[in-house]
Amino acid sequence: MINFLFHRVLNIFLALFGVISIIFFLFNIIPSDPAQMMLGQIENEEQIRNIEKKYGFDLTLEKQYLFYLNDLSPISIHSNNNKDFIYYDKSKYDGINLFSTSKYFLILKFPYLRTSYQKSGKPVSDIIKETLPNTFILALSSILIATFFGISFGIISALNKKNITDKLLQFICTLGMSMPSFFSAILFSWFFGFILSEYTNLNMTGSLYELDDYGEVEEMKIKNLILPAFVLGIRPLSVIVQLMRTSLLDTLNQEYIRTAKAKGLSMFKIIYYHSLKNSLNPVITILSGWFASLLAGSIFVEYIFGWNGLGKEIIFALNHMDIPVIMGSTLIIAFLFIIINILVDITHLYLDPRIKYY
């Protein structure tokens, strides 16, 4: 297990390094003038030069890349000289001094994701802290809905193989997988939030927290979670139903299941005590990818439903070319994707003792 965890941690750093490199060069080769974008309509030559010097836009791309790695690294090198670009600024970094010389020193710190171009220099980390919990709640609600109904419908479909119930569920699943999330979001928002709003009491748009009628106090609106969570969960639900059906049918054909049937055990006991756990391995595997994908794939769903999450923030950043926000958000999603996959691998050890990691 220790050897497995060591290799996994090493893979985390290598994967993140690759993601960081790709994201940096992808967004920094785009022809744009960040200094002019930050100043808007009030820029002049002197202000532009000051901004370029402050943020390092006047440096070569290679140097900008190295400084970006330095900002993201938990252990980074800094200078006491305020004219140096790696000058230690307490407003940006809050670190512990590890080693120092006359000119430079090493610190241990949290990764610095820099500041937004558009939101008055607001730290990207603060923007992510404010929006990521909402996206996480939406993604978690969606995957729980997809898991519960997917496993339940998968069992029903397997137990009614090739009859009308099975065929109807397979048709609905195929339809659910083929329908893009943004189209489902528009359809659900219009139908349940507008046409049937009198009966459903749901809104077309809305976030988890909204101001009251007086615009003074934020109130939690759980009902605003219902539509986006169901929309986001449609595609993974469809996949889980089909995967659970196939896996359960394979398990029910095993010799030990035939033995259990010969002993007179009810189908409920056979499913619950003997088949379900062994059938869940492929479902758990695909859940990891889908949960991480929901964190990234909620962008259009959040935008359509007005859900104040990281996805909606990314749309705003893309529209205004707020590159630090885009890069920081993408890195966080990549990091979560890697961590989730590691947790799923560990879960497999519990579900199937035959699996060994070396």
Outline the structure in words.
The protein has 358 residues and is mainly alpha-helical. It folds into two domains: 96 residues, no CATH class; 228 residues, MetI-like (MetI-like fold), CATH 1.10.3720.10. The protein is built from 15 helices and five strands. The strands form two sheets. A three-stranded antiparallel sheet has the order 1-3-2. Strands 4-5 form a two-stranded antiparallel ribbon. β2 and β3 form a beta hairpin. The longest helix has 36 residues. The chain is globular and about 80 Å long. The model has no long low-confidence stretch (mean pLDDT 83).
Give a short account of the largest sheet: 3 strands, antiparallel
Taken from the alpha-carbon principal axes, the silhouette is globular
- SS strand fraction: 5-15%
Label the structural class. Answer: mainly alpha
| CATH overall fold name of the largest domain | MetI-like fold
Q: What's the CATH architecture name of the largest domain? A: Orthogonal Bundle
Strand order of the largest sheet: 1-3-2
CATH top level of the largest domain? Mainly Alpha
Quick rundown:
The protein is mainly alpha-helical and 358 residues long.
